[in-house]
Amino acid sequence: MTDQRVWFITGASSGFGRELAKHVITRGWRAAVTARDVATLSDLVGDAEQVLPLALDVSDDDAIASTVAETVARFGRIDVLANVAGYGYMSSVEEGEEQHIRAMFDTNVFGLFSLTRAVLPFMRAQKSGHIINITSVAGFLGMPRSAYYSATKHAVEGFSKALATEVEPLGLKVTCVEPGAFRTDFAGRSIQITPTKIDDYAATVGVAIKTAAEGSGKQSGDPARAAEAMIALSEENNPPHHLVLGKAGFEGVIKFLTTQIDEVRSRQETAVSADFPS
C-alpha cells in the first residue's frame, strides 16, 4: 500500500467506526467516512482533500456503488476497507421477530457482502488492499439472547475465510476483528430488543438481556485502543486472519476453541468410519 493510503470506513458515526476514523485522520491518511446520516460526521471533516464524508446505508446497493465510485474519483484508490457498520438484536430464538432479524441481516451480512464486492475490482487492479471485517466474539460463541446476532457474525466469519482463499493470491489481505465487550453504544441506544415473555426463558435469555443492559457503559473494552490495534494491523505485511480484542473475549474464544477441538477429536473413530471402505 502507498504511504498515503486511502481508507473506506463504514459506521463512522459512533463506536468502533468513529474511533477508527479519528485515528486514521490523525495519521494523515485519506479517508472516506460513511454513516446513514452524514451530518453526524461533520466534526471529523477538517481538510476536504483528506476526508470525504458520505451518506451510506449499507443495505442500499445503489448507494454502495455511488459512494465507492465517488471515493475512487476523489482519491484514485482504496487501500483499506473497514466494514464496521452493524448493530445487534436481542431475543430468544423462539420469540425472534422476522422484520428485526431480516433488517439486521441486511446490514450486518448482505450490506457487508455488497460493499466488499464493490471494492474488490479496484483492489484487484491495484494488486493490493486489506479488507477488515468487524465481527464479534459472538462469531465463535453462542450466547442466550444473541442467536440471530451471532448468526450474522458467523456468516461474516465464513465469508471472510473463503474470501481470503480467493484474493490473497492476488495480493489482497483479509482480517476479521472480533471484539468482546467494549464501551460503545452496542448495548445501549443502537440495540434492538424483543423482551422474552416466555417463563421458560426467564433464567437464560431474560437474565442475559438484563445483564447486557446493566453493563452498558461499563464494559472493560476501550474503543480507542481497539482502533489503535486495527491501525497497527493495517501496517503489517502479513496480518492475521483473526484478531480477537479484549481480555474476556480472548479468554472466552480460547476456551471455546479448545473445547471444540477436544469434542471433535473425541469422535474421530465415528468421523473416519463414515468414508467408503478402502
CATH class category: Alpha Beta
Q: Report the sheet-strand fraction.
A: 5-15%
What would you call the shape?
globular
User: What is the count of β-strands?
Assistant: 9
CATH homologous superfamily assignment: NAD(P)-binding Rossmann-like Domain
| CATH topological fold name | Rossmann fold
Q: Quote the average pLDDT.
A: 92
What's the total helix number?
Answer: 8
Distance between the termini: 50 Å
Instruction: Please give the largest β-sheet.
Output: 7 strands, parallel
Q: Any idea how many domains?
A: 1
The residue fraction in helices comes out at: 40-55%
CA-atom Rg in angstroms: 20 Å
SSE sequence, one letter per element = EHEEHEEHEHEEHHEHH
Describe what you observe in this structure:
This protein is α/β, with parallel strands linked by helices and 278 residues long. The chain has one domain: NAD(P)-binding Rossmann-like Domain (Rossmann fold, 3-Layer(aba) Sandwich), CATH 3.40.50.720. Helices cover 46% and strands 15% of the residues. It has helices spanning 15-26, 61-75, 98-126, 147-167, 202-215, 223-234, 247-266, 268-273; strands at 6-9, 30-35, 51-55, 80-83, 89-90, 129-134, 172-179, 192-193, 242-245. Helix 4 (147-167) links the parallel strand 6 and strand 7. The longest helix is centred in the middle third of the chain and has 29 residues, at 98-126. The chain is globular and about 55 Å long. The mean pLDDT is 92.
